[in-house]
Amino acid sequence: MRLTYFSDYAFRVLIYLAVHPERRCTIQEISDAYGISKAHLMKVVNTLARAELVVAQRGPNGGLVLAKPAETIRLGDVVRRTEEDLGLVECFRAENTCRLTPNCGLAPALGRALAAFLAELDKQTIGDMVHGHEQSISRLLAVP
Amino acid sequence: MRLTYFSDYAFRVLIYLAVHPERRCTIQEISDAYGISKAHLMKVVNTLARAELVVAQRGPNGGLVLAKPAETIRLGDVVRRTEEDLGLVECFRAENTCRLTPNCGLAPALGRALAAFLAELDKQTIGDMVHGHEQSISRLLAVP
């Protein structure tokens, strides 16, 4: 069980923006900071923009900022928006052929476990990930 | 976020054996019941045998039985044994290159979410999946 790279990178973008609240950041600098390809990051940023978690401003002085305060972006909400597929097993998904489906206790049990996973993530925000550590995180992400 | 097919099929094997406690079952009949290839099921059964969740008896009267009562096999334990990779994001894994790692709150938050996921699954057993529904599940799995 893994989150997609998409979610992983989305968290990194949000953390990057949260430690640089005073200015617009570029995809190039985020790409350099994490060593992640710009092409990947552009897709992630598009999804975060559609989810109204970041605002991408175009133009020569353009760049990315968080669309709302970091302390209002719950970790579970990020996963809900970036994981296309929270269908843990076949019967959660459209192509289900499992013959147990009409009388199976497993799907609801897995559904409760997924809800517990997301509820636990919702206890913390992007703000919690960075508050009090802005300087040390900035140093870690500074391109040498 | 998905469980692997490996876990999905492991649950199906355990449920199959739990509704047929009175006899040894063959991989062939489980393959026929679910429409899953024997080759896939053999790998799953090998893992379940190594995890001491099923016993595979060889020979002409051989077959599979649960290694212990269905009501003692917690769902979380199945996932722990069948998911090779519970490394939700890169920093859980050996090949980690994320520069946030020395000062990141995300990994512990995801670790707590994973623990909540497994703890929720541990509230139920394979026995809970079938008790009271043995006959209806048997009918669903009967090969026409």
Can you describe this structure?
- The structure is a homodimer of 144-residue chains.
- Chain A has helices spanning 5-18, 27-34, 38-50, 75-82, 106-121, 126-130, 134-141, and strands at 54-57, 63-66.
- The first copy, chain A, is mainly alpha-helical.
- Chain A has a domain at 5-86 and 125-141: Winged helix-like DNA-binding domain superfamily/Winged helix DNA-binding domain (Arc Repressor Mutant, subunit A), CATH 1.10.10.
- Chain A has a two-stranded antiparallel sheet.
- In chain A, a hairpin with a 5-residue loop joins β1 (54-57) and β2 (63-66).
- In chain A, α2 (27-34) crosses α3 (38-50) and α4 (75-82) packs across α5 (106-121).
- The interface between A and B is large, with 53 and 53 residues.
Q: Briefly, what is this?
A:
The first copy, chain A, is mainly alpha-helical. Chain A contains seven helices and two strands; from the N terminus they run αααββαααα. In chain A, strands 1-2 form a two-stranded antiparallel ribbon.
The CATH topology of one domain in chain A is Arc Repressor Mutant, subunit A
Main sheet: strand order of chain A:
1-2
Would you identify the CATH architecture of one domain in chain A? Orthogonal Bundle
Q: Structural class given helices, strands, pairing of chain A? A: mainly alpha
On the 0 to 100 scale, the average pLDDT of chain A is: 89
Q: Quick one: biggest sheet of chain A? A: 2 strands, antiparallel
The amount of helix of chain A comes to 40-55%
Strand content of chain A: 5-15%
Total strand segments of chain A: 2
CATH class of one domain in chain A: Mainly Alpha
| C-alpha end-to-end distance of chain A | 34 Å
Query: Which assembly state applies to the chains in this document?
Result: homodimer
| H/E series of chain A | HHHEEHHHH
Number of helices of chain A: 7
Approximate shape of chain A: elongated
The largest interface is: A-B, 53 and 53 residues
CATH superfamily of one domain in chain A: Winged helix-like DNA-binding domain superfamily/Winged helix DNA-binding domain
